[in-house]
Amino acid sequence: MDLPTILSGPILRRVEPSHIYIWIALSNRHKLSAKLYHIESTEGTEHEYHEIDCDSETTTFRAGKQLYISLIKLTPNGSTFPVNTLLGYNLHFQKNAKVLDLQDFGLLGHNLPHSITYGDLRFPSFYIRDPKQQQTNILYGSCRKLHGKGEDTLSQGDVAVENNYLDLENRPGTLFLLGDQIYADDVPDPVFPIMTDAGKRLIGKEENLAEIEPRLNEKPFHTSLSQTRGRQYIMERFCKFTSSHCRNHAMTHGEYAALYLLSWSPELWDSYTDNCTFPTFNESNKKNQIYFIYENNERNKEENVYKKEYEEQVEDVKETYKTLSKIRRLLANIPTYMIFDDHDITDDWNISHHWKNNVFQSNLGRHVVANGLAAYWLFQGWGNDPDQFNDSFLKTMWKYCRSYDARSAAHGAWEEMLWNFDQWNFVAPTNPTSIFLDTRTQRKYDHSPLPVSLGRTIEEKDRPPQLIGERGWQTITDCLYTSGWKSGEALLIISPAPVYGIGLIESFLNQYIYPLKTIGVPVTTAFDFESWKYNGEGFSELLYQIKEWNPSHCFILSGDVHYASAVTTNVEFPDHDKLCIYQFTSSPMNNMSFSGVQGGLMKAIVTINAAKRRNKEINRYCDASYDIVKQKRNTPCPDDFTWKEKIRYLSSNRGPIIETDNNLGHLVITPTFVQNSLLQAKKEITYAPITLS
Predict the structure, then answer these.
(1) Beta-carbon neighbour count of residue 106 at 10 Å?
(2) What's the rounded Cα separation, in Å, for the pair 631 and 223?
(3) How far does CA 254 lie from the centroid of its chain?
(4) Residue 349's beta-bridge partner residues?
(5) How many helices (H) and strands (E) does the chain have?
């Protein structure tokens, strides 16, 4: 079986008047270039396409024998590219004397199943917003799981662009993906054989993990490593990971890469399946492709459970596959910026110092995290701001990826660089300027023990971390001011974890579920125990950092938590300075968690309590010990407060302050108001416009 030439893409990445980046993944080397067109559209006439004089420069990273990742950079020969006008592009693929374009791959045209064009346009299109123009139109969301329940609402972004592809005033101009673009730790059973086989084909060799962890040569690991459901014990005991769903965890660089390709494009699916048709559970079982814990005579119950889950996951994956052509088209037609959260690497990534230290001391765990970060760079990070990655970074990546030899000095240098790299945050050239926060690798851990009591069990555990430490804040501040942003201008802060979540959920997790997990009870929950407010000092550092930046208006966009909400807060500091923050959260795009008995119970609790909070202010303060205290009625705030605030949860047009079904956020910001809405498969949920003073 031959892999298709185009594995994924094209994806439009960083776009500004001075340059345009286009990302694409190929299975074999081509000389790539791009042409840019000004599309002139007059009612009642055909579109006219005027080629724009610009330089096309391509940087290609060979990540494997059949995996070539390229960034094509377009630079204007004049001063800047035209703004507020419709632009189109085409890619050219040269191999020897033969030159092809996107048309030759069936991607341009009205009626083609995988076309990446809208309406009667000849090419994929986009526009560059004039930095001086005040209105910004952003799509944002997080959390896409291949076997998530319901429709993948990222496809609703494609609908929004399709409905307005010639109307630049209302056409979404930017897409923010806020974390968990893949679920490396939660791969569905029917996809596991595709991921592992594609991973080997892409790289051209099998990554010999037994060279890193010799126990993988022993029974049952030398076979279970390649079997569906066979990796849970390996990930927990050898890698020291803590995900409860890691039976099919991606481990090799090729496997991580395969997950990105499967998440963004139908091409790889079509190479392995016929219209997303999978072998049956019984067929896979007969071929010894499924790992069982029990011996044959004790296996019946286990087989029944696995078969039911397998068949359910097949149906869920098919639903995701149906949307991939739309998602691919969206990514080709809108500038896209991405930041990681934990599932892009593994669940609970760096959740505590204990976790990080355990994984780092595990040769296999350290290697798998590095593989995840390397894949994140290739598929996400590189296109956000390519200038952040200097020649030394590229050389270190390239030296190891030439051989994938785990015994080489290049492997050690590669691992060390990725574990210590501190430039994942970046600024996107939107208006307002957007600063993306790395809340995973820049954490500060408090090493003083946290007492945890549950019944008669009393133990000391790790304290929740500050999601960003002092050094991280300095790096972020340098990045922000280097971008040209100035104090007194409006600012968008992108934090994968909400700064302001739904307090009821966070408190429920912190008071009941977290103690169970920290004392070793295998709690299964869809929600992470990671919130800014769990560490009062870290939360205060965030507020004081925003105060120091002093934006005219501060907007925060977040994901992660598998629900959507909108919050406003007014913060006051002891020196009487004040700060108004608008927080908008969209999650999940395709991973509904309020299902089943536990989810239903949580949803009922939230619904009842949310009704009490609707349109009411919540007053709280941070005391001198960094404890965040909710004020009770008639209880004054102490004089030595660190900060105090009034929080208001905003209701949607449907009434609730929380939305738990799959959704994609849509935010419009103007100088006088901000309008938030949530796009769903059959409806749009809106919030009342917020007037900006």
Answers:
(1) 13
(2) 58
(3) 19
(4) none
(5) 18, 27
* Burial class of 528 by CB neighbour count within 10 A (0 to 12, 13 to 18, 19+): middle
How far, in Å, are 259, 327, 593 from residue 263 at the CA level? Answer: 6, 9, 19
Which of 338, 337, 344 shows the shortest CA–CA distance to 374?
344
Tokens of 354: 């204990």
What's the pLDDT at 508? 47
- The least confident of 169-173, 438-442, 471-475, 529-533 is 529-533
Q: How far apart are CA 488 and CA 548, in angstroms?
A: 10
In angstroms, the CA 165 to CA 150 distance is 26
Tokens of 180: 């968990």
The whole-angstrom separation of Cα 305 and Cα 291 is 13
**Residue 144 DSSP label:** B
In this structure, are residues 498 and 474 in contact, taking their beta carbons and an 8 Å threshold?
no
Residue 357's pLDDT band, with cuts at 50, 70 and 90, is very high
**Sheet strands (E) in 125-190:** 125-126, 136-141, 174-177
Q: What is the mean pLDDT of residues 274-283?
A: 94
Question: How many CA atoms are closer than 13 Å to the CA of 650, on its beta-carbon side?
Answer: 23
Hey, what are 590's tokens?
């395709």
CA distance 221 to 420: 31
Instruction: Give the DSSP letter string of 388-411.
Output: GS-HHHHHHHHHHHTT--TTSHHH
pTM: 0.95
Mean pLDDT of 514-520: 50
Q: What rounded mean pLDDT belongs to the chain?
A: 91
Angle at 102 (CA atoms; ends 101, 108), nearest 5 degrees: 135
Helices marked H in 456-527: 470-482, 503-508, 514-518
Task: List the single range of 43-47, 78-82, 263-267, 535-539 with lowest mean pLDDT.
Answer: 43-47
What's the pLDDT tens digit per position in 4-40? Answer: 999 999 999 999 999 999 999 999 999 999 999 999 9
φ, ψ of residue 647 to 5 degrees: the values are -105, 140
Query: What pLDDT was estimated at residue 132?
Result: 75
**For residue 291, what pLDDT is reported?**
96
Three-state secondary structure call for residue 245: coil
What DSSP line would sit under 307-332, residue for residue? Answer: HHHHHHHHHHHHHHHHHHHHHHHHHH
Q: What count of other Cβ atoms lies within 10 Å of the Cβ of residue 372?
A: 27
DSSP string, 570-588: EEE-TTS-EEEEEEEE---
Residue 308, C-beta contacts closer than 8 angstroms, at least 6 positions apart: none
Amino acid residing at 585: T
The percentage of residues in the chain with a pLDDT greater than 90, rounded to a whole number, is 80
pLDDT at residue 526, rounded to an integer = 45
Backbone angles phi, psi at 356, to 5 degrees: -60, -40
CA gap 32, 91 in Å, rounded: 7
pLDDT tens digit string along 36-73? Answer: 999 998 766 789 999 999 999 999 999 999 999 999 99
- Among 96-110, 316-330, 585-599, the range scoring the smallest mean pLDDT is 585-599
Q: Which residues pair with 629 in a beta bridge?
A: 621
Q: How far is residue 519 CA from its own chain's centroid?
A: 30
| Residue 460: other Cβ atoms inside 10 A | 11
Residues 6+ apart with CB under 8 A from 233: 221, 224
d(CA 142, CA 154): 9
Q: How far apart are CA 492 and CA 509, in angstroms?
A: 28
DSSP state of 13: E
Measure Cα distances from 14 to 23, 352, 382 in Å. 10, 33, 10
Rounded Cα distance between 229 and 187, Å, is: 9
CA distance 306 to 313: 10
Q: What is the DSSP letter of 273?
A: S
Q: Is 481 helix (H, G, I), strand (E, B) or coil?
A: helix
